[in-house]
Amino acid sequence: MSGSRPEQLVRAEELMNNGNVEKALEIVLNFEKTYELTPKDRLSALLLKGSIFGIVLELIYTNELVSKIFNLSINYNYILEILIFFRTYEKKSRR
């Protein structure tokens, strides 16, 4: 395994990149518990865990923001404008 990352961390990163952050985090946490880690492996696990937490926090923030925007749009009858905005944003983010 010298010079490369452990298979578990590679798999966890693939899962994270494909949106399966729960399974990715589970793999990293099990990896940290199960194996005696080298300093390099420990650092790799911590960096990956930080990336996973960053994604989770971004999703939480985005969901809260969308909820606030939607509630405001209902209060001011701007539902159509908000839906058009999100549709445009979704198309731009896919590029």
Helices and strands, with pairings:
Blueprint: H1 7-17, H2 21-34, H3 39-75, H4 79-93
Strand content: under 5%
Classification by helices and strands: mainly alpha
Give the quaternary arrangement of the chains: single chain
Kindly report the average pLDDT value.
81
Tell the overall outline: elongated
What is the percent of helical residues? over 70%
Given as residue ranges, the uncertain stretches (5+ residues, pLDDT < 50) are none
| H/E series | HHHH
> Distance between termini?
37 Å
Largest sheet: none
Radius of gyration: 19 Å
**Annotation, overall tally of beta strands:** 0
Number of domains: 1
Helix count equals 4
Textual characterization of the structure:
There is one protein chain. The protein has helices at residues 7-17, 21-34, 39-75, 79-93. With 95 residues, it is mostly helical. The chain has one domain. It is elongated, with a radius of gyration of 19 Å.
Q: In a nutshell, what does this entry contain?
A:
With 95 residues, the chain is mostly helical. It has one domain (7-93).
List key phrases describing it.
mainly alpha; 95 residues; 4 helices
